[in-house]
Amino acid sequence: MAHDHAGHDHHHHGPPADGNFSRAFAWGITLNLLFVAGEAAGGLWANSSALLSDAGHNLSDVLSLALAWGATLLARRRAAERFTYGYKGATIQAALLNAALLYLALGFILWDTIDHLRHPAPVNGPVVMALAGLGVLINGFTAWLFQSGQKADVNVRGAYLHMLTDMLVSVGVVVGGALVYFTGWLWLDPAISFVILAVVGYSSWGLLRETMQLGLQAAPVGIEVGAVRRFLLARPGVTALHDLHIWPLSTQDTALTVHLVRPGGQNSNQFLRELQHDLLHEFNIHHCTVQLEDDYPLMGAHGCCDA
């Protein structure tokens, strides 16, 4: 019976969840906290409930950024006696919570938009447009900081989408404020907000679905279980396999366990080294445990489910 644990000393594909992004998180939190303070003050001065509501929404985004950053830092901690995989799973929990917070924020903006549609009120247009324009710059810059890592890490993607959502909402406030200022049509501002909310809600659905799947330990998006099974069955000497499981350890790290039936079992160490290397580079699977068996089924080798 042979086991192999892969990946702690290998290069991980994709950008790191910390390092470069620690600076992005720090910049994003600092800039957005300053913007929240300025937006709240401007909202009180301009008598704009829209600005005050957006300030509250941006404050929730600061919390989301802090949550995502804390998870990436927690994931760096070493494994412990009880937490044998370390704290990598915190990034999945943070990503799932951030996806839920994103839709909660959209719901809050929707409620506020409906209220503005039902009870339109004049505001100080130039102040609203100036502050919203500043929001476009700040949120756009913050979103850009996370853009390079949002495809490789769901946790980073959550932060990216939060900032992108804020930028689009701010664009809507600028456009709506300008149109209302020059036309006097107060209904234009909430009408534009409805369009933006629909676009953001639709584009963010994939994030919510993927984070829920990761929380349920589904095979990560981009790894086809059938392709992994065919790859393993094609290895030299392998005649069958069972108990194949693939699940995420974090938003970046993937684990695999499998029982391979390989009669004879010659050159097992070399076979396992090559398999470890190929699983990492072909499927980006960082941690693998492989049990080699002469016969199928090996008595008492089955787990709770077969694959």
Automatic annotation (TrEMBL):
Q: Which GO terms describe its molecular function?
A: zinc ion transmembrane transporter activity
Q: Which Pfam families match?
A: Cation_efflux (PF01545), ZT_dimer (PF16916)
Localisation = Membrane
Q: Does the keyword Ion transport apply?
A: yes
Q: Name the protein family.
A: Belongs to the cation diffusion facilitator (CDF) transporter (TC 2.A.4) family. SLC30A subfamily.
Instruction: Show the InterPro entries listed in the entry.
Output: Cation_efflux, Cation_efflux_CTD, Cation_efflux_CTD_sf, Cation_efflux_TM, Cation_efflux_TMD_sf, CDF/SLC30A
Membrane topology of this protein: Multi-pass membrane protein
Cation efflux protein transmembrane domain location:
29-213
Q: Got a GO cellular component term for this one?
A: plasma membrane
What positions does the domain Cation efflux protein cytoplasmic occupy?
222-294
Where are the membrane-spanning stretches? Answer: 24-46, 95-114, 126-146, 167-185, 191-208
Q: What is this protein called?
A: Cation transporter
Sorted alphabetically, which keywords does the UniProt record give? Ion transport, Membrane, Transmembrane, Transmembrane helix, Transport, Zinc, Zinc transport
Q: Which SUPFAM superfamilies match?
A: Cation efflux protein cytoplasmic domain-like (SSF160240), Cation efflux protein transmembrane domain-like (SSF161111)
